[in-house]
Amino acid sequence: MMKRIKKFSKCFVLALLTGFTLISAGGCAKSSEAPVGNSYAKEIKEFRDLRLQRLKARDGWLSLAGLFWLEEGENTFGGSEEADFVLEKKNLPPVIGTFILGDASLRFKAAEGVSVTVEGGGEINGEMPLLTDETAKPTLLSHQSLSWFIIKRGDKLGVRVRDAENPRIAQLTSIDTFPIEKEWRIEATFEKYQSPRMIKTPTAIGTIDEQPSPGVLVFTVKGNEFKLHPIGGEGDLFIVFGDETNTVETYGGGRFLTVKQPDVNGRTFIDFNRAINPPCMFSPYATCPLPPEENILPFQVRAGEKMVKGLGH
Q1: Total structural domains in the chain?
Q2: Considering only CA atoms, which of 113, 109, 81 is closest in space to residue 94?
Q3: Which domain range does residue 76 map to?
Q4: 51 and 60 in contact (C-beta within 8 Å)?
Q5: In angstroms, rounded to a whole number, what is the distance separating the alpha carbons of residues 231 and 221?
Q6: Do 151 and 178 sit in the same domain of this protein?
Q7: Domain end residue (candidates: 171, 190, 209)
Q8: Who's near 196: CB < 8 A, 6+ residues apart?
Q9: Contact (CB, 8 A) for 200 and 210
Q10: Residues 180 and 282 grouped into a single domain
Q11: 232 and 220 in a common domain
């Protein structure tokens, strides 16, 4: 159906997209200056509503319909079993087009009689070069409800396909979450490294990636000090963490969390009520980082999103 994923590196940290002494989870987190009352609950509910809207958007994670890894030479793409990459969608041409991968080039050629458009440029004629997601604006091609672009993961190039009519979009109507508890908004101190340090991050496809970490977040739970290591660059801090709810109440591959940029004194808050599932929870075609060993917390974080059931992979 699709070529086997062979290798992954430099995972998208966004958008894209995640794990031991036991400590009680219920109301265990120390909080300072946390929002109180209905205003905080409203803020988190609005965050969760927007989160669902983005997942269901035309370019959201629920629209993913395929991920195919290119090999040297010609790679055909379409609805026929004879194509190298077969898409599970009715009424597609047997071959939509061909990806041509050379030593230092990547091009796409639409099949004869098939209309393929490029974002901002209309219908393509003949072959055209493709930019990957390493650039600010990868080449986005479309046919009917399908759109696709090239992702680069280490030394591999893949075709990421979206379908604006993917049944998953309508299938997901809500995401189960833990109750909103202000105690899970925890004051933390960010200790910035003089220069980023590389940490090993496993991936959902069984490889190990190295990601730069700009520093470490230090926080306290029930009188015990813990640390989380964000990955990525400057600005807001992106965290992939695991805890003892994984595989039981939450996704087995951990969860994602964004922490606001620390102030001049390194002060910020880790709000676990904003913990979200990684893209791999919503689609088998996503490539996700898993929690690095340093970010596996030895207690239950009963806050944020729970496991999503019923989508099937």
Answers
A1: 2
A2: 81
A3: 61-171
A4: no
A5: 22
A6: no
A7: 171
A8: 212, 213, 214
A9: yes
A10: yes
A11: yes
Identity of residue 55: L
Give the residue among 163, 127, 134 at the shortest CA–CA distance from 146.
163
- Look at residue 234 and tell me if it is in a domain: yes
Helix (H, G, I), strand (E, B) or coil at 155: coil
Q: In terms of DSSP bridges, do strands 156-163 and 237-241 run parallel, antiparallel, or are they unpaired?
A: unpaired
- Cα(117)–Cα(125) distance, rounded to whole angstroms? 9
Rounded Cα distance between 297 and 292, Å, is 11
Judge whether 313 lies within some domain: no
Under 8 Å between Cβ of 214 and 230: yes
* 159 close to 68: Cβ distance less than 8 angstroms: yes
- Based on the domain organization, do 179 and 166 belong to the same domain? no
Residues 43 and 117 occupy one common structural domain: no
pLDDT digits (tens, 9 = 90+) for 188-201: 999 999 999 999 99
Q: What are 68-120's pLDDT values in tens digits?
A: 999 999 999 999 999 999 998 889 999 999 999 998 899 999 999 999 999 98
Are residues 227 and 276 located together in one domain of the fold?
A: yes
The per-residue pLDDT string of the chain (313 residues; one tens digit each, 9 = 90 and over) reads 333 333 333 333 433 333 322 222 333 343 334 444 689 999 999 999 999 999 999 999 999 999 999 999 999 999 999 999 999 888 999 999 999 999 889 999 999 999 999 998 899 988 999 999 999 899 999 999 999 999 988 788 999 999 999 999 999 999 999 999 999 999 999 999 999 999 999 888 777 888 899 999 999 999 999 999 999 877 899 999 999 999 999 999 999 999 999 999 999 999 999 999 999 999 999 889 999 999 999 999 999 999 998 775 5
User: Any idea what DSSP says for residue 61?
Assistant: G
